[in-house]
């Protein structure tokens, strides 16, 4: 989601750095996957969402803030 990019950049992480941190947590994601997640072109699985929240130190609510517009 665009919130992944928002919080990733706020934390000063590149897509590759985020992918590396997720891989260390056992979630095998490539930086190209991060690109697709941020552009809404791939489904983000629940375990990936949880790991992303842990790495970025955010809540699931923050991950999904302002996303209702995609369902209107």
What does this structure look like?
The protein has 72 residues and is mostly helical. The protein has 5 helices and no strands. Helix 2 crosses helix 3. The chain is globular, with a radius of gyration of 11 Å. The two termini are 16 Å apart. The relative contact order is 0.21.
Helix content: 55-70%
- Main sheet specs: none
Any idea what the radius of gyration is?
11 Å
Approximate shape: globular
Helix/strand class: mainly alpha
- Give the DSSP E fraction (strand runs of 2 or more residues): under 5%
Determine the number of helices (DSSP H or I, runs of at least 4 residues): 5
- Low-pLDDT residue intervals, each spanning 5 or more residues: none
Distance between the termini: 16 Å
SSE order, as H and E? HHHHH
Q: Could you state the oligomeric state of the chains shown?
A: single chain
Q: What does the average pLDDT come to?
A: 92
Say how many strands there are: 0
């Amino acid at each position: 989601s665009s919130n992944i990019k928002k919080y990733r950049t706020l934390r000063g992480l590149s897509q590759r750095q985020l992918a590396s941190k997720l891989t260390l947590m056992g979630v095998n994601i490539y930086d190209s996957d991060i690109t697709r997640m941020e552009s809404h072109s791939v489904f983000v699985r629940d375990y990936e969402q949880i790991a992303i929240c842990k790495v970025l130190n955010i809540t699931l609510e923050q991950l999904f803030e302002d996303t209702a517009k995609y369902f209107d």
